[in-house]
Amino acid sequence: MKFQTKNDLVFTALWDAISSGELAPGDWIRTAEWAEKLDVSQTPVREALRRLEAQGLVEILPHRGARVTSHTLEHIVETFHIRMALESLAARLAIERSDDEEFRELVARMEALTSEMEEAVARNDVAKCRQMNQELHFTLYRAAKMPRLLALIEGLWVTYPFDTLNLQPDRPRQTLTDHWRLLEVMKRRDPQEMARAMEEHLRSGLETLLRTMPDARGGRGQQASRLARHA
């Protein structure tokens, strides 16, 4: 059994709060409040904040405290473009590098995860949807059998964990529809088609995210949306 330290528990709780939108970009993270909430001293909270700062998720300002890092539209678009390139590559390689038995097992696992997500969508359990979404993606990427590529993708998910499932009421259902479509494409065992389907899935998430940004209706938001569509 793997035991988590208090530092790890606090880090996970704060990471989840940031990625789910509970803590939005620019929000202050009050050390005392989180220590009380998690029933720990302030020391592991401070240590977790330093880890989050090292990953670019939090900025610590002397004599003021810590707050969630704000990201520009340009940074968001750039991050998603990199994800599109790397994750579509991983999706293609997962098809190319799986033998017949591995491929059958991969499809079965992806179907099981998508079914679990479908149940979570029916219950409106966004937290479970997020868990199944991440597990499904990385089940596929691990099948590419490229540890360094996997590490790069994991790094992007860690340093920019914001998902779109909590941003619009219909987004979990749209993501579920996308996942069933990815499965249909996967079963045809066409690596190039799989890569295109993954890129389209991620672009859809980016466009959803851009529509929720405060200045998404302004000139910069419209420019970023065009970049998202024509990447």
Please, could you describe this protein's structure?
Helix 2 (31-38) crosses helix 3 (42-54), helix 5 runs antiparallel to helix 8 and helix 9 (191-212) runs antiparallel to helix 10 (219-229). A hairpin with a 3-residue loop joins strand 2 and strand 3 (65-68). The chain has a 3-stranded antiparallel β-sheet. The protein is mostly helical. It has helices spanning 6-20, 31-38, 42-54, 73-97, 100-122, 126-142, 147-159, 171-187, 191-212, 219-229; strands at 28-29, 58-61, 65-68. The model is unreliable at 216-221 and 223-231 (pLDDT under 50). The chain has 2 domains: 6-68, Orthogonal Bundle (Arc Repressor Mutant, subunit A); 73-229, GntR ligand-binding domain-like (Four Helix Bundle (Hemerythrin (Met), subunit A)).
